[in-house]
Amino acid sequence: MARFTLLIKVFGKAMARYDDILEFEPNLTGSGLRIGVVVCRFNADVCEGLLSACTAQLLELGVAKTDMLIASVPGALEVPLTLQRMAESGRFDGLVALGAVIRGETYHFEVVSNESAAGITAVQLETGMPIANAILTTENDDQALVRMHVKGAEAAQVVVEMVNLLKKLK
Prior knowledge:
By secondary structure, the chain is an alpha/beta fold. It has four helices and six strands, in the order E-E-E-H-E-H-E-H-E-H. The chain has helices at residues 44-60, 79-89, 108-127, 141-168; strands at 9-10, 13-14, 35-40, 68-73, 94-102, 131-138. The protein has a four-stranded parallel beta sheet with strand order 4-3-5-6, with helices on both faces. Strands 1-2 form a two-stranded antiparallel sheet. Helix 1 (44-60) packs parallel to helix 4 and helix 2 runs parallel beside helix 3 (108-127). The chain is globular and about 55 Å long. The two termini are 28 Å apart.
């Protein structure tokens, strides 16, 4: 029977839970990683906030400015195709999708939210490229503005962590 060790945080890092089971710890080292970012122009204020937070966090994690590329697209439905082209290019280790779909008075919100998310997931699974999906889906502008900085930064962390994890799993 495996001996269980409590999850302990030492200097902000989680320690392994088991003594005799290999466990990969999160690695947020971005140095040398090439990251592509696709950002929507629709709901521009929110998207610019997401982008600002994402790129600042990528820099903080060690991703060089010269290792980032930002592609802007009209809206969330154009994101998956752009991600697919970037993933297939061989130029990137990981990708980030940034956008905001804010509920209106029609069914269009559901279509855009669901189809963009499904498209992003499909690209990720078809290409094996890690993609952090930070396309916000909110009820109103206020919710989007409150979330944009946190979600932009989290997307940067997710893509770096997943690139590093997938490299270990090869």
